[in-house]
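Co-fold these.
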Amino acid sequence: MSVTGVLQVWVAALLVHLAASKVVLRPEGFLKLPTYVGTTTFNAGVANKAAYDSVTNLLYVVGHDNDVMQIINMKDSLTNPVHARSIRFDPLNQGFPNDVKVCRGGLPTLEFLAISFETKNNLEQAHVHLYQLLEQPGDALVRLKTVATVEGYDPNSIAWHKDCTELVVVSQGTMHVLNGELVDPKPSVDVLIPRLGLNVDRRTVPFSETAITSARVRQVMTKCDTGSYTQLISHVEDLEPNFVVVDDDNIAYVLMQSNNAIGRMDLQDPLTPMSYHNMGRKDWSQYKMDTSYEDGGINQNPHSMTSLYQPAHAVAFKFANKTWLATADTANIRRHNIRSGSTTLCNFDESVVGATWTRSNTFSSFMDANTAAQLKTNMSSNAITGRLPFCQLKTFQDGYNPLQLSYSYLTTYGGRGWSLIDASDMSRVYDSGDIMETYFASSAATDSDKAVYNSYYQAPQSAQSQYVDRTSINTGPNPTAIATGNINGTQVVVVANGNIGGLYTFSITLDGSGAPQVGFEGFIRRGSPGLTWANAYVRSDDAVGEPGIEDLLWIEDEGQHVVVAISKIAGVASFYEVQLQ
Ligand SMILES: *[C@@H]1O[C@H](CO)[C@@H](O)[C@H](O)[C@H]1NC(C)=O
Ligand SMILES: *[C@@H]1O[C@H](CO)[C@@H](O)[C@H](O)[C@H]1NC(C)=O
Ligand SMILES: *[C@@H]1O[C@H](CO)[C@@H](O)[C@H](O)[C@H]1NC(C)=O
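Predicted complex below.
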């Protein structure tokens, strides 16, 4: 064999080896986080969001309801770290933490631990505190700047400019009651700018009614269905920004889950307005969905209906010299039943279950008559789509044809998967389809997996498997958080099951034409299906699992790759090592 021949064989073998390498998540440390008084209690509100400082190897976790911040020390081990300390916030002066983010901009004056707080009962506008990053877990928490007030009330998500010169804060503007009156705060996107000295400047990003409308962004509420609150709600007021992420080029992406849209703005260019992108609908005639818990268990079928993707959580990353956005897509249905004493202030529901939908709605002539008849038959059966929520808004966006006073297509909620978006034009290049649900019907699924299929946490005394199949009608696998990292050239995406916990792993490689090629690598879940959540929690192992994952972090340090899942319901930080095999 010639030298080139040998080389060719060797290169071919290497390629086969690369293609065959498998991404594996190995369960490692599992920390039950304490309340601020030091007790470990199931579902005590001690963990929602997290941020990691790669210089000090400290992981910060904030717990909203317990008003606490956990300091986890990862200096000695990334895979088996230790809980060092819990810091209690002051509910009156600071409020309750919504999000936490670390930034190290390269200059000592630009290093911050940012925490957004909402005030008790939303009595006042929200605040952001900029603290000094701790060097050691025991260091005092020192505020560096004046407390910055933001326009919004519920600053659920924050993200830094890469140089730490700006912090983007998004507030949803959820309706709430104040002194017996309904308050419907505007959504807001604030940009905070830490100045030399103590000051923090703020600019509030304007929303454009015409830009939103021309981008065909979905409007959910125009007014309450019933109730004493009769004010009209504008398209801008209806926006609900719930998550923000900033990419390496300082483009911010603002997710508006219930509106099924993403706003995109360049932080370097504050004069160019935000652009709005409709995330479109998923066609379930080419995928399989489980639509009922009364159909004898795992039973997935294609349906002639669409669902709104509804991105809830996202990561931005560079791969093959391009910026991508990976979004976790899951249902968010707007429903309100807001009262003050015996007065109903606002009742609203954008959806209605299939069995009810057919009673007051019909299909337009744009739909094939056979399909329409089948859909109606399916919706009249609780074993098919009778309990699935469908959109009942009379808007063009949601399929309503105002000329025929009927629907041209049927819309349900949530992508039940994740999407890969080309950030340059916000087009979707990949959709995980039905993999997160059909995995459970595959030979790879274990009996322990199947036992908790589409189950969810309902009460501490219920077994983890007790509500098996129950979420089939609303969220299915409920992807609530997503993280990504690159291991030796393979981009790995990890997606959380927000109901029963567990992580789905995917890999992205490039095909011959340079297009991303996504492969499903597997599912792993900690937990013990037969135990009740409460009994599992008191055991010394990881039997409680990670119900209600709200945040997912990818930590890379000295060649080690670790994924941390933050379980809101269990109050746990769960660590996995990611490896190529
Ligand atoms: C009606 O339900 C069956 C069973 O789930 C499904 O296979 C079929 O595709 C549905 N029909 C339509 C038109 O969606
Ligand atoms: C990456 O993309 C940029 C902009 O398209 C281009 O200028 C640059 O040469 C590319 N770099 C590589 C390594 O391909
Ligand atoms: C990446 O490749 C290097 C060199 O082949 C190897 O030593 C290392 O273990 C790999 N890292 C992972 C996480 O697989």
